[in-house]
Write a structure and sequence with these properties.
There is one protein chain. This protein is α/β, with parallel strands linked by helices. The chain is 62% helix and 12% strand. The longest helix has 99 residues.
């Protein structure tokens, strides 16, 4: 169930609209009723029905550079944000504006991409919200209205399927009398049924499958009607062509045999020329390669070979002497680390003891200060009372003054003694700190030296490896050269000993080819003229056959179209699907106070496929939907949409209707009362209209969205 619609900067409105399940928005024109309905559609679908589906179309509703719409349910909330971005092309100075859409969901379940968020929204509210614009619906054709109703209602037939469709067509069209009296027509019917069934995939529902077959049948009927007209014209044209031909097809077989022999002879001679030319090319290439191999062998034989590696060995020895033995400094490093840690530990212990001594000195100085202060106070009384100077006092404080002097002397001596001990400890602390720093510096220097030795040895080893590769190259160069010379000599010997193949006279054979081609061209021209005559006769015969075939196919497709359409399967299927819907619409109309029997008409009196609906009024007249008043249409559609929602059972069962100001007071009250009785079938009913008369709406939340006005018009 929806709990609220959140709107920010949409058509000048920023509001969070609470929802109760049965909500009616009223108010004057421009107050925001339709804005709430549009925001609901935009949040659910990503676009406003009837306003275009692109982000630019949607952003026309924005006030400013950003707008947001969102929905809140019992346990879920999502917000859809549209933001305008402007980017300036530095080269041209042109400003390019784009609209970016983003989604937020709460509480999240790890959704990161926009696709994942859209899937989450679908999982929470479903993908079957019914959003209908009455004016758009009224402007649709019969077929479009039918398709719209079917698209909103995922209702399938329990009795019709692909197998039953095929059985129906075969039993209705493939009759015994046709097979006996006109077997060609029977075969055409069989073929058309077979091809039409191929347009009904196994995974299609019966409605989609039938529509696919009907579309194919219409296309084929147009095609074969055209072929039928073409075939009739071709018969006349071929008859005229036959009369105009001067050549006949006499001796065509003899000339074709001669042409065939000459073409084979031409192939054989050209094949011989091609083979001999390849042989000549092979001989020339072999001789050229023999000369190249002689030069290569001579060059390798005469080229000097460097095998002395003394210079390289000397460089390797010098580098090996530069290698420094690497000693593992781990033990020394451990010793220095322990030494540094012990110095730090000693320093911490001395620091703690020094702090205690400093506190002791402070305590002693505080005691002395207190006694001296008391003595100075007594000395300043001048024989008066400590409590009140106006009172005389003859008490002798000399013993107390002597006590103070003695305690001060003792405290001073003790402070000096503690201070001396503190000075000694602070010196020990300085020594411990120096010892720790020295150990750290020695450790760092040792580690640095070890790293430098490793790096130096690595560089030297790399140079040694390169020199060893160079020495190996010198040592193997002579062996590689001798091996290469041997390979070249073996190849040259093999080429020189290759047996010679006989080659014919290519020039004579080319002259022979020219003569054969000339005779072939003559025969082709003669045969071509004879073929025209023969083809004219065959085409005349074929045109007659095509005319009959097209005629059979056109008749078969017309019969198939009738069997599939409103007079056949589609009519039966529509009746089967619409009857339960009609009954439920009748029940809903009765609950809304309209005791009218609804009807659906799928075939006209002339047998034409139509899709009309309406109700039978109190006088027994069939009133077509288009003939109803706008208010009556609103009531009928409310009953029909409640039926579709109830049968489709979407995750979020939501009925939204705008522009209810088309209803008069009586019909509006009937609609409100009736929907109140049907409210248990849906999660939310949201109505809107510029209602300017009093009405009763018990159980409804009536919200006047006119700015500054909160009261309702209910009686």
């Amino acid at each position: 169930m929806l709990k609220a619609i959140e709107i920010k900067s949409v058509k000048g409105q920023t509001v969070t609209q609470p929802l109760t399940g049965r909500d009616l928005f009223i108010g004057r024109n421009g107050s925001g009723k339709t804005t709430r309905i549009q925001a609901l559609g935009l949040a659910m679908l990503g676009y406003v029905p009837g306003n275009g589906k692109t982000a630019n179309d949607t952003f026309k509703l924005a006030t400013g550079d950003e707008m947001c719409v969102g929905l809140v349910t019992d346990e879920f909330r999502f917000v859809r944000t549209f933001k305008r971005n402007e980017k300036i092309n530095k080269a041209t100075g042109e400003t390019k504006t784009s609209i970016k859409e983003s989604l937020t969901v709460s509480p999240g379940r790890g959704e990161r991409t926009e696709t994942e968020k859209k899937e989450r929204i679908t999982a929470e509210i479903g993908n079957f919200p019914v959003m209908m614009d009455f004016n758009d619906f009224l402007s649709l054709s019969d077929a479009k209205r039918r398709d719209f109703i079917y698209s909103l209602s995922p209702i399938t037939s329990d009795t019709w399927n692909r197998e039953r469709v095929q059985n129906y067509l075969e039993s209705k069209l493939l009759r015994v009398e046709i097979q006996e009296n006109n077997p060609d027509q029977y075969n055409a019917l069989q073929e058309m049924i077979r091809e039409a069934m191929q347009q009904f995939p196994m995974d299609f529902g019966v409605h989609e499958g039938l529509q696919s077959m009907l579309d194919w049948t219409a296309t084929q009927l147009s095609f074969w009607n055209s072929k039928k007209k073409d075939a009739q014209g071709a018969v006349r044209q071929m008859a005229e062509m036959k009369n105009e031909l001067t050549e006949t097809d006499r001796n065509i077989a003899t000339q074709k045999k001669e042409l065939e022999d000459l073409q084979q002879q031409l192939i054989d001679v050209e094949k011989k020329i091609s083979a001999d030319e390849e042989k000549k090319k092979a001989i020339d290439a072999r001789l050229k390669r023999i000369q190249e191999l002689g030069k290569l062998i001579a060059n390798l034989t005469n080229a000097p070979v460097l095998t002395d590696t003394a210079d390289v060995d000397q460089k390797i020895a010098q580098l090996q002497q530069q290698l420094v033995e690497e000693n593992d400094p781990a033990e020394q490093l451990d010793t220095l680390n322990r030494k540094a840690q012990e110095a730090k530990k000693s320093y911490n212990q001395l620091e703690k003891k020094a702090q205690q001594l400093k506190e002791q000195i402070i305590h002693l100085n505080a005691g002395v200060k207190t006694l001296v202060g008391s003595a100075e106070t007594i000395s300043g009384l001048g024989g008066n009372c400590v409590i009140d100077k106006r009172i005389g006092c003859t008490k002798d404080f000399t013993p107390f003054m002597q006590f103070v002097a003695q305690k001060k002397q003792e405290a001073t001596e003790m402070v000096a003694k503690v201070q001396a001990e503190l000075d000694g400890i602070e010196k020990q602390m300085a020594d411990a700190e120096s010892e720790g720093l020295a150990a750290q510096e020695e450790r760092d220097a040792l580690q640095k030296r070890a790293n430098e030795i490793v790096q130096s040895n690595n560089r030297i080893q790399k140079q040694i490896i390169e020199l060893e590769k160079e020495r190996e190259k010198h040592l193997t160069e002579k062996e590689r050269r001798e091996h290469q010379i041997k390979m070249y000599e073996e190849e040259r010997s093999k080429l020189m000993n290759h047996p010679a193949e006989p080659i014919g006279d290519i020039m004579i054979m080319r002259v022979q080819v020219g003569g054969i081609r000339s005779r072939i061209d003559e025969l082709k021209i003669s045969i071509q003229e004879k073929e025209k005559a023969k083809q004219a006769l065959l085409l005349l015969q074929q045109s007659l056959l095509d005319n009959r075939k097209a005629d059979y196919n056109v008749n078969a497709l017309k019969l198939l179209q009738d069997a599939l359409g409103a007079k056949g399967i589609q009519g039966e299927l529509v009746k089967e699907i619409l009857e339960p819907i009609r009954n439920m619409i009748a029940e809903n109309l009765q609950l809304m106070g309209f005791d009218f029997e609804p009807f659906f008409q799928t075939e006209s009196e002339t047998g034409k496929e139509i899709f009309q609906f309406g109700w039978v009024n109190e006088k027994g007249h069939f009133v077509n939907f288009d003939a109803m008043s706008t208010g009556q249409q609103t009531v009928f559609l409310a009953a029909m949409m409640m039926t579709i929602i109830d049968r489709a059972k979407p995750k979020l069962r939501l009925l939204v209707m705008d522009n209810l100001n088309h209803l008069d007071r009586t019909n509006f009250q009937l609609l409100i009362n009736g929907l109140n009785k049907l409210a248990h079938k849906v999660d939310n009913i949201i109505l809107a209209g510029a209602i300017e008369f009093p009405f009763e709406a018990e159980g409804w939340n009536v919200c006047d969205v006119t700015p500054g006005k909160e009261e309702s018009l209910r009686e």
